[in-house]
Amino acid sequence: MCFPNGGIVASYDNRCQWIALDEALSAFASSGQLTQSQRHIKPLHWYVACRLVIEGGFAPDEIVPRPPFSIRSPRKGRSLRLEYDPTMGGTGESTILGGLKAKDIDVVVSKPGIGPCLAVSVKGTLNAFRNLTNRMEEAVGDCTNLHIAYPNLVYGFLHVLRANREGEAVTSDVSVGADGNPVDAVVRYRNVLSNLSGRRGVRDDVTRYESLALALVEPAEPPNSASLLDWPSEPSPLRLESFFDRLYREYDLRYVYAAPKLEKTTRRLFWAEDSPALDQSIAEEFEARLAP
User: Fold this and answer.
1) Is the separation of the CB atoms in 278 and 271 below 8 Å?
2) pLDDT grade, residue 263 (50/70/90)?
3) Which residues pair with 63 in a beta bridge?
4) b/e for 223-256, b at 16 or more Cβ within 10 A?
5) Using CA atoms, how far apart are residues 255 and 151, in angstroms rounded to an integer?
């Protein structure tokens, strides 16, 4: 599997790679029906992990899977410089011991001496949309399980659905009807997820996620590309555009502002504007966390 990003990624392997959102969505939307290998969704894991570094200011060593970056220590009085190094990309998931059972989580940020403090679960559905009810139960269970053990954990849930249109899809499983609107099963799923988002503070409902996003992804022209449908419509709390901002806000409130004595460990980093990684063409897609 190749990604057309100007040479940043040469080929698919299991190590975390730096790719653009369009490439990650394309890998998902153009996938076949066999998903056991997770090849259709792994690129989206990588996109999330890389964004947490460039935009979120988390150190690569704190994230699993480890993004392909390194940090160069600055001369006194200068900001940290972020470097792109494809050999530094890591593999795997983090296994977290929840309140009810251990759970493998797709992307996790852990701080030394504190443990997991931010996590993102990424799901992808290509067909069988009638089974989204099962995903509702899984989403509630996973969130509750982790928040019981780690009430401070900032937990995000990102779910992408392939936009199989009625009359066009090669499968009988459709997510978008002939009228261009999502089918009833998808709408019901959206309604349930809306009630699971927006957790604020450690005393809030443990069944809610701090941030949650739902997106319909459609294969597009040219081949090996994809586009996001404008759904859910504004002002839905499930829009992908605000997914990461909510994670950062809740993280700062809990781990930085609420615990100033731990700030040296928990504060998010800033990158120097002349960081070598930011010279890569793909960096234009990301809003880097630059030093003020």
Assistant:
1) yes
2) very high
3) 109
4) ebbbbbbebbeeeebbbeeebbebbbebbeebbe
5) 12
Tell me the torsion sign for CA atoms 229, 119, 248, 44: negative
In a domain, 192, yes or no: yes
3 state SS of 186 = helix
Average pLDDT, the chain: 89
- Burial of residue 85 (number of CB atoms within 10 Å: 0-12, 13-18, 19+): middle
- φ/ψ of 102, rounded to 5, equals -75, 145
DSSP-based three-state secondary structure for 161: strand
Question: Is residue 4 situated within a structural domain?
Answer: no
Domain residues for 227?
21-285
The DSSP element (H or E) to which 102 belongs, if any, is strand 102-105
Average pLDDT for 202-218: 95
Q: 4: pLDDT confidence band, cut at 50, 70 and 90?
A: very low
Place of tokens 């040296």: 264
CA atoms within 13 A on the CB side of 82: 29
Q: What angle do CA 228, 229, 234 make, to 5 degrees?
A: 110
Residue 8, both tokens: 């940043």
Q: Which residues contact 220 (CB under 8 A, 6 or more apart)?
A: 29, 226, 227
Alpha helix (H) residue ranges in 227-269: 243-251, 263-266
- d(C-alpha 79, C-alpha 1), whole Å: 36
- Whether 79 contacts 86, CB under 8 Å: no
- CA 226 to mean position of chain CA atoms: 17
H-helix or E-strand spanning residue 118 = strand 115-125
Domain membership of residue 14 (yes or no) is: no
The C-alpha atoms of residue 69 and residue 277 are separated, in whole angstroms, by 8
Domain count, the chain: 1
pTM value? 0.91
